[in-house]
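Chain X:
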Amino acid sequence: MSDEELRAKLDEVFNRPEDEEYRNWVWQGVEKGWVSPPFCMTHDGDNFLTKEEEEMWEEGGDPCTPVLKLIYETGFGKED
């Protein structure tokens, strides 16, 4: 994912004006390799759907659940 794509994804996930500080915090974590870029657990797999989300999914809905994955390996996913 390019920096531009990542920034667009962060803007999509953290889209309220009051989210700016958090969005910057997440960006720093991704840049340093501490967390993954946000991704959707619904579309990429989620074993923790709420009952409401599960019902929505079964009825053809599309509940998006953005998450970040903590990265324990230094520099994981970063190009050298």
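Chain Y:
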Amino acid sequence: MPERQDQTDTERSFDSNALAEKARQAGEDVRRAGASTQALASAVRHSTEERVALRPYSTIAFAAAAGYVLGGGLSSRLTGTMLVLGGRIAVRRLLSEAIGGQRRPPGPIVEPSHH
């Protein structure tokens, strides 16, 4: 029976070593994930700051729309009305640009200079 006890102690030692190695690997994985998360957050912050500086009003509109959607506003009757009105405005704008683009006079004609 003592022989069985020795095997159990050896198995326990192996198990604790393997467990320690797994814990070390897990800790390293968590450290790498944390560093990646910090890098991603920094990139998002930089991109957001840049976008706000270049287009502050569209950024505010986007944030408001995202908040509305995340807040559960998509299923409301108001959303349907807003989508219909927004679609009509978009179609009108596209049509006016298309028609307006055809009526525009050609650009100035530049004649080559004679030296």
